[in-house]
Every structure is written in structure tokens, then in C-alpha cells.
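Researcher: We plan to redesign the surface later, but first we want a full-length starting point. C-alpha cells attached.
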């Protein structure tokens, strides 16, 4: 029943290499950036991520997998607050990235900055914004909000095309 399924928790299961198990000579195609985007996308859908590494027959983690996992861990040291304990937002995933919520904060994960040209428009935004800022620096972001139409316009300048992720924090009054 689709109605029941909508209320169930989601899990995204994926692999780091090309196989669920160990394969001699398996090449690793996914970068840390791609794996972090997989994690962010899962959070944006309200899902947890199960990432399989396929250890060797001796039970060891391959060095290439270890390097990727440590890279994801480094990213989480900085951005964990924007992932851990969050819930899927009322906003659907967009071409620029995804939004997640925790308490009175909405985190906009911009993983495709090339899709934004200095302004990010969010339609049908139901909350009053108390503050908008960059997560990384705390820099305030200028915005306009039209309560009548629900249009929120964020002035987003200086996005880094090479960054794994850039996060805008919206402090909202619900």
C-alpha cells in the first residue's frame, strides 16, 4: 500500500566500488565528492545511507576504500551538524541540491553551484526567515521574502564550483 510506504523510514543502499563483495582488481570509480553527494542526497530524501565496502577475503578494508571513508569522515567533522539528526525538508530535491531540517534550521546543501546564478529562488516557502547565512563562514546572506506568494529569494554570491558542498543555513520561525 503506497500510503503506508510513505510513512516508513527509507534506506539508500549503495556500493563504493563495482561490486557488493570483494572482487580482485575492482576499480574504484567514486571520489570522496561523489560519495558525499550520495550521503547528502540520501539525507535530502529522508533516508539513511548504507554504504558497502566489500572487504578483502582476509576481512581487511582496501586502502582505496579506507581513503574514501576517511575523506567522508573529514567532511562530516565539519558538516555533520547539517546531516546528523536532520529530517527531509518540505522542499523536494532540486537541480542545485537538497534541503534538510533540524529544529528551527533548514540547511540548503548546494552540491551543484553551477545551477545557481547569484540568486536562489525558493517558491512556496511557508516560514518566516529570522536569518540566512553561510554555514562555512557565518556570512550573512541577503534575502527577500514575499509572504503573499511564498517566494524566498536568496542572494548567493561567490559559490565555489570545486567545493564538495556549500551550505546555506536558514533560521526559521515556524
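Model: Full-length starting sequence:
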Amino acid at each position: 500500500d503506497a500510503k503506508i510506504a510513505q510513512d516508513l523510514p527509507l534506506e539508500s543502499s549503495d556500493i563504493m566500488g563495482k561490486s557488493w563483495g570483494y572482487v580482485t582488481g575492482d576499480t574504484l570509480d567514486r571520489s570522496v565528492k561523489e560519495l558525499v553527494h550520495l550521503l547528502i542526497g540520501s539525507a535530502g530524501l529522508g533516508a539513511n545511507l548504507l554504504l558497502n565496502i566489500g572487504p578483502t577475503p582476509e576481512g581487511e578494508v582496501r586502502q582505496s576504500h579506507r581513503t574514501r571513508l576517511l575523506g567522508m569522515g573529514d567532511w562530516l567533522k565539519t558538516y555533520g551538524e547539517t546531516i546528523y539528526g536532520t529530517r527531509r525538508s518540505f522542499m523536494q530535491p532540486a537541480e542545485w541540491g537538497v534541503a534538510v531540517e533540524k529544529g528551527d534550521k533548514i540547511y540548503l546543501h548546494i552540491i551543484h553551484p553551477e545551477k545557481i546564478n547569484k540568486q536562489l529562488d525558493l517558491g512556496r516557502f511557508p516560514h518566516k526567515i529570522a536569518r540566512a547565512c553561510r554555514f562555512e563562514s557565518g556570512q550573512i546572506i541577503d534575502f527577500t521574502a514575499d509572504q503573499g506568494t511564498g517566494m524566498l529569494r536568496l542572494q548567493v554570491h561567490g559559490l565555489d564550483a570545486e567545493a564538495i558542498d556549500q551550505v546555506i543555513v536558514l533560521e526559521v520561525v515556524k
